[in-house]
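Support request from a user on the community tier.

User writes: "When I paste my structure tokens into the form, the page sometimes reloads and wipes my input. The last time it worked, I copied everything first. Here is what I submitted, just in case something in the input itself triggers the reload:"
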């Protein structure tokens, strides 16, 4: 019975999405799928948090789970809607098919291929990409309530130690450009993952090219 009530609370919480999908004066073609995903994520988190408020009292735990689901869904939908708008503006202003922008519902991931960011074995950003980074910077300034993780990745060519160092230095190079253009340092976390997190096979040149990248992960606060 308790699980049924919790599930019912989660189903009810998804209805809160419709409130966040009303007209906002923004482009009506915004993809609302991620807003709904944000609501579901928020509802699940809220359910777990709400269950902890009742202690050993099962009735209070169920009530807390339902309240938490509703509150979490509302917050999650709001975050998802904000990410929808931010992603749409970023795609519009950057207008670069080589840069991938992914909205997962609770974060944005901007993937910058290293082959257009850097020359081979270099940590100096190419002039052609500085304008795209300037667009990204302005977008981050326009949406200040987030933490930004800059994560460097490489393929498996060369030693693992070298790739780790190269990925870290390239992440720091992107971080430096964002800071120079006005993003506060306290919002940025830079790290390298070397060859440890491939997104494609390293057995082909095309796969290795995909693995050489810098991900800018935008996490709402």
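"...and here is what came back when it finally went through:"
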């Amino acid at each position: 019975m308790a699980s049924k009530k919790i599930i019912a609370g989660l189903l009810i919480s998804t209805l809160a999405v419709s409130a966040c999908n009303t007209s906002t004066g923004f482009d009506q073609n915004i993809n609302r799928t991620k807003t709904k995903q944000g609501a579901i994520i928020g509802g699940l988190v809220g359910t777990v948090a709400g269950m902890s408020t009742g202690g050993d009292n099962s009735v209070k735990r169920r009530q807390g789970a339902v309240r938490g689901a509703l509150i979490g869904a509302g917050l999650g939908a709001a975050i998802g809607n904000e990410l929808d708008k931010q992603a749409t503006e970023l795609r519009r202003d950057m207008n670069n098919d080589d840069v991938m922008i992914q909205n997962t519902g609770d974060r944005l991931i901007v993937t910058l291929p290293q082959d257009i960011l850097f020359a081979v074995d270099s940590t100096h950003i190419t002039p052609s990409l500085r304008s795209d980074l300037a667009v990204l910077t302005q977008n981050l300034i326009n949406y200040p309530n987030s933490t930004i993780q800059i994560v460097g990745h490489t393929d498996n060519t060369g030693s693992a130690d070298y790739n780790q160092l190269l990925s870290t230095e390239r992440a720091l190079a992107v971080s430096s450009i964002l800071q120079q253009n006005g993003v506060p340092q306290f919002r940025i976390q830079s790290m390298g993952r070397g060859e440890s997190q491939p997104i494609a096979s390293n057995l082909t040149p095309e796969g290795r090219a995909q693995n050489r990248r810098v991900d800018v992960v935008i996490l709402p606060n």
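Agent notes: The reload is a front-end session timeout and is unrelated to the input. The beta strands are 100-103, 108-113, 146-153, 188-192, 213-220. DSSP finds eight helices and five strands in the chain. Escalated to web team.
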